[in-house]
Design a protein that fits this description.
By secondary structure, the chain is α+β, with helices and mostly antiparallel strands. It has eight helices and five strands, in the order αββαβαααααββα. A hairpin with a 2-residue loop joins β4 and β5. α3 runs antiparallel to α4 and α3 crosses α6.
Length: 218
Amino acid sequence: MRKQYLVAAAGLLLGLLFIIATHVYQTQQAQKLDFLAREDAEVFVRPHSPSLGSQDARVTLVEFMDPACETCAAFSPFVKKLMDDNPGKIRLVLRYAPFHDGADDFVRILEAAGNQGKYWETLDIMYQSQGHWASHQNPQPHLLWDFVAMAEVDLDMVRNDMNEARIQRILEQDIADARALNVTKTPGFFVNGKPLTTFGFKQLQQLVESEIARMYPQ
């Protein structure tokens, strides 16, 4: 019986140590991100970063994304609804964290389509058709081109422009910033520099709404 008590006590102690260590880590991360948000805001938003919404919005929602990421596709309509529900108050900024195989090329295609003013249209089509060309059971990236054409872009121009040195620099900068912010999976969200620490639709909505309440007091 005494042995059982000792085992139980050891288990409780280990659990307590884990909770303390997690709390300390999260606190340190929050302090680091708060410092970066104040002293190095560009690590969240670069001049090259695509954005949607009012430039005067007081709430900036930064999303590190990957065009081949299923969860990014699932969150896309949710984020747009958040913006529609709060007109003029949220600015969405996209950053790249191309973690999936071949994701670099998907980003290059997206940026090249942006040269023709079709960035957001192409991204929507990529997400909507993702299951056809990026299925984890049978990925076929070459099929993406059939869907990109639906964005009414000049495909020959996209194929040429996707090799621009500019796009390579964007990728390298975004990957470096993702590492600095400890983004290890997509989508990775930050709202006015605050990370979404507990992942989920409801949690993101709560974080966004708390920042709206703070930045737009009644």
